[in-house]
Amino acid sequence: MTDLLSGQEPTDYDASSIEVLEGLEPVRKRPGMYIGGTDERALHHLVAEVLDNSMDEAVAGHASRIEVELLSDYSMVIRDNGRGIPIDPHPKFPDKSALEVILCTLHAGGKFSGDAYETSGGLHGVGASVVNALSDSMVVQVARNKELFEQRFSRGIPLGPVEKIGAAPNRRGTTVTFHADEQIFGSHRFKPARLFKSIRSKAYLFSGVEIRWKSEIDDGETPTTATFHFPGGLSDYLMETLGKSSTYADKPFAGVVDFKEKFNTPGKVEWAINWTPARDGFIQSYCNTVPTPEGGTHEAGFWAAILKGMRAYGELASNKKAALITRDDLTTGGCALVSCFIREPEFVGQTKDRLATVEAAKLVEGAVRDHFDNWLAADTKSAGAILDFLVLRAEERLRRREEKETQRKSATKKLRLPGKLVDCSSKTREGTELFIVEGDSAGGSAKMARDRKTQALLPLRGKILNVLGAASSKIGTNQEINDLTQALGVGLGTKFNVDDLRYDKIIIMTDADVDGAHIAALLMTFFFTQMRPMIDTGHLYLACPPLFRLTQGAKRVYCIDEAEKNAHLDKGIGGKGRIDVSRFKGLGEMDAKDLKDTTMNPATRKLIRVTIDEDEPGETGDLVERLMGKKPEKRFEYIQANAQFVEELDV
Ligand SMILES: Nc1ncnc2c1ncn2[C@@H]1O[C@H](COP(=O)(O)OP(=O)(O)OP(=O)(O)O)[C@@H](O)[C@H]1O
After folding, report:
1. Where are its TM segments located (predicted)?
2. Does the structure show a pLDDT above 70 at 79?
3. Is 85 in the pocket of ligand 1 (CB under 6 A)?
4. What domains sit in the chain, N to C, each tagged with a CATH number?
5. What string of DSSP letters covers 607-634?
6. pLDDT in tens, 199-230
7. pTM score of the predicted model
8. Catalytic site includes residue 240
9. Number of C-alpha atoms within 13 angstroms, CB side, residue 337?
10. What's the ipTM?
């Protein structure tokens, strides 16, 4: 804050603070990788990237005011009174200004080392350049040392060097004006209501900043001007969000802890929580003012503190049932805001949806826990009401589970399961598996190889419908898909609910040949497009049947592929006499013992869990569309591009 208060120009934040790690190019080609897609959400993410840079200046104590303006042509202007992006020549690229390096190079930034910023939302050095690459026009003005500089860009390319365009005797800071490129975002437009909401929440997250909002576009519901400044922080925010809903505590349990004071490490956490019977619970978490809608370690630490505190309080109050409370019970009816500031946070992906920094869990838990214990002890009326409410939640949850378990068997009968399903006998879902197998003959061996108690089989006849490219009416009436959906118990389309799944693991078991791979691909496409939560919650697996069996006397070894077979042939398998090699043409060829040992027995088999690359969720969708979609030319392009890759490798 010192330089802001003294009005002196900071001297140690210049071009040398900006490090370069890599060049810029692929952003326009693969925007999904950087901003999670090209839809409306991704478009609004551009504003967040630029605004976060101004917030970082504010949190670091160099800016006190940020202005955000939506112009009539849907350009965005974001202005702060911070130090201004450095404009002096960059030490590594002497013919370019630091400004140009920042805006035209991926991984250029001042936040890698923690010297120019202590706890920043920015860290990858990517944000500003990504916005630039995806804007058909971007103008950056910097007021530094009483002079005003400007550089203009289009689609990531500078239209000229940085130029001095006048004096700025009473101003300092950065102004970024950009217009998102329609070539990338099509007809998506900024929505005043969405911008207004996210800007307002930013102001709540840092009480040291004032954010002014202005919009030349009037959507009829969002104010066209507003000033946000919330000295009351998250507690006010929560009370405002909950409005008139009745709550179990009169005032939220809220606080701020400086990690420096408590743990001698930079950073802090601020939080507010209350419970209400009036609505489902929620948690909104932030790290360095960046929203983390998928939670992460800070949320985990927060809930751990609340859970342990609540159970300990229950014990003190001799309420034995408090031990039943789980994290799920806390979140039903619990409405929480958690905002932490830490040094060098690690997020998952450039859109920073989830915090991954491990230490954050401990720091937040440690900071919140003491306060919570004190708060509960000081207000026994609220504490008792919350405890009773949570115990009730826990009991309800347990009752529901019991009902579900006892119902499973009868539901199984009522469900009208497909005739060809070979179900398992277990009454509960726990530990059960459904093998989707290719063809009836494979089904025969699998039936003998399975564990009747926990392993069920669904043989599929031939290939299932390719759901990409099929009309949804066709999906609903397809026999194989219907059988599969019924066996899973989850319902299709709007009726789909992953909680109804009848088995723990769904395992695709197809032959280790091209046809088998195609069937597996069709099934995965079906799950990805129609039952995505099954993948997200980790229920979908691929079995890995072997391709070879080597026999030497009484010794037997299975090999997954050619390479493994050759390695064994070189090394020997430790039996006597000649080594016999048999190649399984399909699962149906394996006898039950082979199939059990290699592919089905949980103790000896190998399984691959199907996951979606978290860093590139958009990419997975693109790839599925390309490979399985209606357009053969896309498939052709992909094969061409990748075939070339193989050739290059061969050279
Ligand atoms: N408004 C600003 N005021 C001062 N410096 C800024 C401003 N905006 C950007 N910078 C400087 O430019 C650098 C690069 O910004 P950019 O948005 O590309 O990446 P980042 O914020 O470091 O990381 P991330 O990619 O995670 O957002 C920042 O690290 C900071 O040094």
Report:
1. none
2. yes
3. yes
4. 25-228 (3.30.565.10), 234-398 (3.30.230.10), 416-545+584-611 (3.40.50.670), 624-651 (no CATH)
5. EEE----TT-HHHHHHHHHHHHSS-HHH
6. 998 899 888 899 999 999 999 999 999 999 98
7. 0.56
8. no
9. 24
10. 0.96
